[in-house]
């Protein structure tokens, strides 16, 4: 399902002295099956934006088209529940949403709400618990006996169990240690490719955004400041610095090499291997000359 | 060098039938240093922090802070006054209904007269640059600001040591920078001793000394450049090497023999430059 | 979620805002008593004048006062009607079939409703012009002497202030969890009562789990910062009794004497 956001505007506490414009003039199109990252400082409107994509927040002005669902300011979309079946959100610290006695019951909570037969829901749970890296024997255990990282995996399984075609991830690795971070991002990347999901990642990690995204949006004060593919976004380090955002380390490295060796290097270097290759080309060429 | 904390053969577990969370841990903290204690989640590093200011007591062994043993009931308050902890969750350690109230909390506990409290408060909020937020309520502050308030509340008590117990792990990059920057300034200007408990090796790379923990044991200890020589060991216990070291290691595998370890990108690029000059 | 008003404080610089919370608490308390002195039109007019002047002096937008009254309005109207129909005193005014309305009933109804109205207006003025924490400190100081008879005044005040501190945090959290569960297809607002009660479990369990975790963390943090009960503790919050506060008491005294003289 393609997503198309047009002139979206949202203000909190409208009509009270606490009114605050959280989003303004957002135009964004996310084609089906792409990986979209959203970057920005805390309070830039990222979370507000993604909550519009499954009707948790209603636009104050503008519209959101998702497949054949249309959400418009001032109108009620009656099929919100049907929309939410298609759009799964993994919220920040999703482990806080666990509530059932057993892990299995928690994972099938979403599917059952959307009318999935219980047998099928359980099958999904059995498959997903392994996919998120836990043993099937965990299904009968209480989610509250797990470590923080394991709880997060269970919560993620609970969202995936709804089989959404659009998966929204709001800083899914916040607070995890490096190994946990790598594993969780690896899982989402695999799912994105294998299941053909549309993935929307809200993140502070420039490295993740650069590595996985087809497109990146940078938000600032409720609006879109920059938008394009990784190469385009990270080509202009000055624009990012002006927004006090970092450039991925690989890109910083390339820029330093270019400066020191007075050479031009390929720009779309977003992995360690590519960075090492760039260093090697410099060293080898210098040796030959 | 003056030793502030000495941990001697400490073992600890939360309940008797449970496995030990810390096993025969020994370490010492020197006055004025920035000590990073690294390890992945569950390695026992946060438990260690709680033993250092008497929130937990060792099952075996002793913890001495400036000579006070945490086992003596009388010493506990002396120890807590000397060792402040900034915890992980910014919200769950903010006691007061405003910044001023929160910074005052520890001072109130110590029974300080109000006039002196006001002096200490204005002094310490300035040091963390939160002086313009004295009346602000916590839910209007960012995570980084809340952590800076927590630091102010601690330094107002004039402690000898501040422990950052994963104090930046729930913050966004901007918040992380502002908290670490604040602590670095305090160390430089006030000579504060800092123990930073973290799984971020990039942060640890800037410490004076690193202690590596795994499964409740101290498995390595030394200067950053020495500890980072054992990159494979660090990765095996679930930690991420800083990017310059990863590049350097990959290049080494391709036959480039570096003389020294490069902890920053500048150093790495400089090393590559010397390579190029040599060839 | 943001519409919930629990003692909502409206910042301001008025005479009433600047009063010592203890003066305001005592006034509200005394007002509750002297309201019962009024028993004729004149005394009610006097109380009404006091209340209206207080509202005027507070310089609060009337909307806030009205918002505070809204939930109670139905109760006031019901009380009024009950008295109108059930009190059978004085001359009969009119007759609606089985319902007879007497002059005494109307009078009684008006009086009781006014009494309620004044009480609510004065107490909302207290909460609208005083921060909850000031109210807490005020109560703690006023009840201070009770410590001697073993009343846990400090613990109570600390509990109150921590509760106040965490109300916004928990409201925010409630909203977050509601959203997360809604995204998993949960519905909170429709269906029969039994279903609704069931639907609230996915909200309540996480809230409790998180509140306990917070409480545990907070206790740890407080202990780490040297908290060991109220004994020997000093306080950063200072209440200042000034001329304004004494003036208020003189006004209140005059009001009380007036009521005593004018009541029948």
TrEMBL record, chain A:
InterPro entries: AAA+_ATPase, ABC_transporter-like_ATP-bd, ABC_transporter-like_CS, ABC_transpr_CbiO/EcfA_su, ECF_ABC_transporter_ATP-bd, EcfA2, P-loop_NTPase. Keywords: ATP-binding, Cell membrane, Membrane, Nucleotide-binding, Translocase, Transport. GO terms for molecular function: ATP binding; ATP hydrolysis activity; ATPase-coupled transmembrane transporter activity; cobalt ion transmembrane transporter activity. It is a peripheral membrane protein. It is found in: Cell membrane. GO terms for cellular component: ATP-binding cassette (ABC) transporter complex. This is Energy-coupling factor transporter ATP-binding protein EcfA2. It is an enzyme of class 7 (translocase). Belongs to the ABC transporter superfamily. Energy-coupling factor EcfA family. ATP-binding (A) component of a common energy-coupling factor (ECF) ABC-transporter complex. Its EC number is 7.-.-.-. The keyword ATP-binding applies. The keyword Cell membrane applies. Its main location: membrane. It holds the Pfam family ABC_tran.
TrEMBL record, chain B:
The keyword Cell membrane applies. GO terms for molecular function: ATP binding; ATP hydrolysis activity; ATPase-coupled transmembrane transporter activity; cobalt ion transmembrane transporter activity. It holds the Pfam family ABC_tran. CDD domains: ABC_cobalt_CbiO_domain1. It is a peripheral membrane protein. It comes from the Bacteria. InterPro entries: AAA+_ATPase (IPR003593), ABC_transporter-like_ATP-bd (IPR003439), ABC_transporter-like_CS (IPR017871), ABC_transpr_CbiO/EcfA_su (IPR015856), ECF_ABC_transporter_ATP-bd (IPR050095), EcfA_1 (IPR030947), P-loop_NTPase (IPR027417). The keyword ATP-binding applies. One of its GO terms (cellular component) is ATP-binding cassette (ABC) transporter complex. Keywords: ATP-binding, Cell membrane, Membrane, Nucleotide-binding, Translocase, Transport. Residues 5-240 form the ABC transporter domain. It is found in: Cell membrane. PANTHER family: ENERGY-COUPLING FACTOR TRANSPORTER ATP-BINDING PROTEIN ECFA1 (PTHR43553:SF24), HEAVY METAL TRANSPORTER (PTHR43553). Belongs to the ABC transporter superfamily. This is Cobalt transporter ATP-binding subunit. It comes from Guptibacillus hwajinpoensis. The gene is cbiO.
């Amino acid at each position: 399902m393609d997503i198309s956001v047009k002139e979206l505007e949202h203000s909190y506490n409208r009509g009270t002295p606490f009114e605050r414009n959280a989003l303004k003039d957002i135009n964004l199109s996310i084609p089906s099956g792409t990986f979209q990252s959203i970057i920005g400082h805390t309070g830039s409107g990222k979370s507000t934006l993604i909550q519009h994509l499954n009707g948790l927040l209603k636009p104050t002005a503008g519209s959101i088209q998702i497949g054949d669902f249309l959400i418009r300011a001032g109108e009620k979309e009656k099929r919100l529940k049907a929309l939410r079946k298609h759009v799964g959100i993994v919220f920040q610290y999703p482990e806080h949403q666990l509530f059932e006695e057993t892990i299995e019951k928690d994972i099938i909570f979403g599917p059952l709400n959307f009318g999935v037969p219980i047998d099928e829901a359980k099958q999904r749970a059995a498959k997903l618990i392994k996919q998120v890296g836990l043993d099937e024997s965990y299904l009968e255990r209480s989610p509250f006996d797990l470590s923080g990282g394991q709880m997060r995996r269970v919560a993620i399984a609970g969202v995936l169990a709804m089989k959404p075609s659009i998966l929204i991830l709001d800083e899914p690795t916040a607070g995890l240690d490096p190994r946990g971070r790598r594993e969780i991002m690896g899982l989402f990347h695999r799912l994105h490719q294998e299941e053909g999901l549309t993935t929307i990642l809200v993140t502070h990690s420039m490295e993740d955004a650069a590595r996985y995204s087809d497109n990146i949006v940078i938000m600032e004060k409720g609006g879109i400041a920059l938008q394009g593919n990784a190469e385009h976004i990270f080509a202009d380090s000055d624009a990012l610095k002006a927004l006090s955002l970092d450039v991925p380390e690989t890109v910083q490295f390339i820029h330093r090499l270019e400066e020191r060796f007075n050479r031009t290097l390929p720009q779309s270097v977003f992995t360690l291997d590519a960075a090492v290759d760039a260093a090697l080309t410099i060293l080898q060429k210098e040796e030959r000359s | 060098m003056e030793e502030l904390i000495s941990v001697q053969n400490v073992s600890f577990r939360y309940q008797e039938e449970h496995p030990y969370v810390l096993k025969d841990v020994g370490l010492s903290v020197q006055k004025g240093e920035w000590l990073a204690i690294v390890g992945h989640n569950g390695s026992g590093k946060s438990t260690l922090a709680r033993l250092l200011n008497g929130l937990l007591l060792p099952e075996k062994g002793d913890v001495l802070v400036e000579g006070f043993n945490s086992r003596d009931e009388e010493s506990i308050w002396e120890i807590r006054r000397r060792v402040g902890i900034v915890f992980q969750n910014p919200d769950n350690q903010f006691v007061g209904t405003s910044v001023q109230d929160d910074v005052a909390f520890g001072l109130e506990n110590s029974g300080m007269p109000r006039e002196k409290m006001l002096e200490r408060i204005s002094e310490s909020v300035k040091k963390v640059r939160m002086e313009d937020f004295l009346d602000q309520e916590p839910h209007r502050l960012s995570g980084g600001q809340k952590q800076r308030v927590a630091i102010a509340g601690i330094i107002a008590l004039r402690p000898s040591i501040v422990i950052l117990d994963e104090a930046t792990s729930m913050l966004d990059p901007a918040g992380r920078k502002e908290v670490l920057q604040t602590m670095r300034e305090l160390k430089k200007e006030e000579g504060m001793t800092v123990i930073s408990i973290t799984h971020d090796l990039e942060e640890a790379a800037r410490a004076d000394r690193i202690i590596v923990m795994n499964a409740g044991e101290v498995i390595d200890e030394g200067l950053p450049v020495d500890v980072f020589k054992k990159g494979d060991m660090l990765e095996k216990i679930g930690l991420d090497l800083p990017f310059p070291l990863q590049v350097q290691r990959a290049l080494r595998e391709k036959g480039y023999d570096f003389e020294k370890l490069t902890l920053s990108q500048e150093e790495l690029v400089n090393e590559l430059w010397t390579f190029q000059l040599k060839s | 979620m943001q519409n919930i008003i629990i003692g909502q404080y409206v910042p301001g610089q008025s005479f009433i805002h600047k009063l010592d919370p203890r003066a305001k608490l005592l006034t509200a308390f005394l007002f509750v008593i002297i309201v019962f002195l009024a028993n004729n039109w004149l005394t009610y007019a006097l109380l009404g004048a006091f209340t209206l002047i207080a509202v005027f002096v507070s310089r609060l937008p009337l909307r806030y006062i009205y918002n505070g009254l809204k939930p109670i309005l139905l109760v006031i109207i019901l009380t009024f009607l009950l008295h109108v129909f059930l009190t059978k005193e004085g001359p009969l005014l009119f007759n609606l079939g089985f319902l007879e309305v007497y002059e005494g009933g109307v009078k009684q109804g008006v009086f009781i409703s006014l009494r309620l109205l004044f009480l609510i207006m004065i107490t909302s003025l207290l909460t609208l012009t005083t921060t909850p924490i000031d109210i807490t400190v005020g109560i703690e100081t006023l009840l201070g002497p009770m410590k001697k008879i073993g009343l846990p005044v400090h613990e109570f005040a600390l509990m109150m202030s921590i509760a106040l501190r965490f109300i916004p945090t928990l409201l925010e959290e409630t909203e977050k969890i509601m959203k997360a569960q809604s995204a998993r297809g949960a519905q909170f607002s429709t269906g029969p009562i039994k279903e609704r009660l069931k639907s609230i479990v996915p909200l309540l369990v996480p809230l409790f789990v998180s509140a306990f975790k917070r409480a545990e963390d907070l206790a740890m943090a407080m202990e780490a910062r040297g908290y060991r009960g109220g004994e020997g503790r000093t306080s950063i919050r200072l209440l200042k009794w000034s001329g304004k506060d004494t003036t208020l008491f003189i006004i209140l005294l005059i009001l009380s004497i007036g009521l005593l003289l004018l009541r029948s």
